[in-house]
């Protein structure tokens, strides 16, 4: 069996700091995959709602270890004067060679998001990029 995942990153924009808090570019209230380009490394994740996930990184709760870690990493990059940007994926297609099926992936389904996220992580590593979340 061969499975091919087709997707394209849509640049969302640059991140910045305002009074020490991260300002994210606008993100849709849709399920998808996201990538933060931190210059020397990337962070890739998936979520059922991009807008809410970005907000979680901006204002992490006391028990949200990943949000706290990413908030710290992003704040450090930005406060040191380095650029950081975000990109998203809200549409993807899968090809399955067993029967020639080509179908859109429903990114509201977690397994579909994980498939795209995994493909994105592997692609970054194959291109020699350091990946923050591995």
Short description:
The chain has 134 residues and is of the alpha+beta class.
List keywords for this structure.
single chain, GIY-YIG endonuclease, alpha+beta, 31% helix, 3 helices, 5-stranded mixed beta sheet, 3-stranded antiparallel beta sheet, 134 residues
Structure description:
It is elongated and about 55 Å long. 27% of the residues are buried. The chain is built from 3 helices and 10 strands, in the order ββββββααβββαβ. The protein has helices at residues 50-58, 65-79, 110-126; strands at 3-7, 10-14, 16-18, 21-23, 32-37, 41-47, 85-89, 92-96, 101-104, 130-131. The model has no long low-confidence stretch (mean pLDDT 93). The chain has a 5-stranded mixed sheet, with helices on one face. Strands 1-8-9 form a 3-stranded antiparallel sheet, with helices on one face. Helix content is 31%, strand content 34%. The protein has a single domain, classed as 3-Layer(aba) Sandwich (GIY-YIG endonuclease), CATH 3.40.1440. The chain has 134 residues and is α+β, with helices and mostly antiparallel strands.
